[in-house]
């Protein structure tokens, strides 16, 4: 008699709770009224303890709501860039973020960018990052599953790399297709 094998499902794509904590820090002072209700509608109940993880789609909805709430007069691209900038600042205020910031300062910009895949993995289990060194101070990053607004991930890379003390850093979105994007970082 053949033994029936269990069904193996791929792991759910999630963002970890401390990442959501960083977003909530960004949103301090804006979490009452309509935004609170909208976040609850997408599954983030602020009257409950944070979950250990949230589905990727839910995270992307949270980012969209946050960008709209904080930067209503900006284009979506500008709003997501500014949200990313604030997120880096807020994330580095969390326990996990403080630890990461200390590591980045020691590594410097080149080694930080070369470890982007590992650094991004601390916040979710679904982002895929390919890093290509084009020259000593010129990098291309290809990120899959970052969301439909690539400026958020671009800002994370840009402002995260700035914490190393690098001067003259520029970051641009070179290409964007669906939820994947290519970034160029130079200094």
Distance between the termini: 65 Å
Largest sheet data: 4 strands, antiparallel
Low-confidence stretches: none
Number of helices: 7
**Any idea what the shape is?**
globular
* Structural category: alpha+beta
Radius of gyration: 17 Å
Helix content: 40-55%
Number of strands: 6
Q: Averaged pLDDT, please?
A: 93
How are strands sequenced across the largest beta sheet?
A: 3-4-6-5
Beta fraction: 15-25%
Summarize the helix and strand pattern as letters: EHHEHHHHEEHEE
Q: Can you offer a commentary on this structure?
A:
The chain has 187 residues and is of the alpha+beta class. 47% of the residues lie in helices and 19% in strands. It has a four-stranded antiparallel sheet. It has a two-stranded antiparallel sheet with strand order 1-2. α1 (17-26) packs across α4, α4 runs parallel beside α7 and α5 (95-114) packs across α7. The model has no long low-confidence stretch (mean pLDDT 93).
Relevant terms:
187 residues; alpha+beta; four-stranded antiparallel β-sheet; two-stranded antiparallel sheet; 6 strands
Overview in brief:
The protein is about 45% helix and about 20% strand. The protein has about 190 residues and is of the alpha+beta class.
């Amino acid at each position: 008699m053949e033994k029936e094998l269990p069904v193996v499902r791929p792991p759910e794509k999630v963002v970890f709770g401390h990442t959501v904590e960083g977003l909530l820090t960004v949103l301090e002072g804006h979490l009452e009224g309509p935004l609170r209700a909208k976040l609850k509608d997408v599954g983030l109940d602020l009257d409950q303890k944070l979950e250990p993880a949230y589905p990727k789609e839910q995270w992307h909805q949270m980012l969209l709501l946050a960008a709209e709430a904080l930067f209503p007069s900006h284009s979506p691209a500008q709003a997501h860039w500014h949200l990313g900038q604030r997120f880096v600042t807020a994330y580095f205020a969390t326990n996990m973020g403080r630890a990461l910031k200390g590591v980045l300062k020691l590594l410097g910009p080149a080694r930080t960018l070369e470890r982007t895949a590992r650094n991004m993995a601390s916040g979710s289990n679904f982002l895929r990052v390919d890093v290509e060194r084009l020259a000593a101070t010129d990098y291309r990053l290809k990120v899959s599953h970052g969301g439909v607004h690539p400026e958020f991930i671009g800002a994370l890379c840009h402002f995260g790399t700035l914490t190393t003390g690098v001067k003259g850093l520029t970051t641009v979105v070179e290409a964007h297709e669906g939820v994947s994007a290519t970034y160029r970082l130079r200094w």
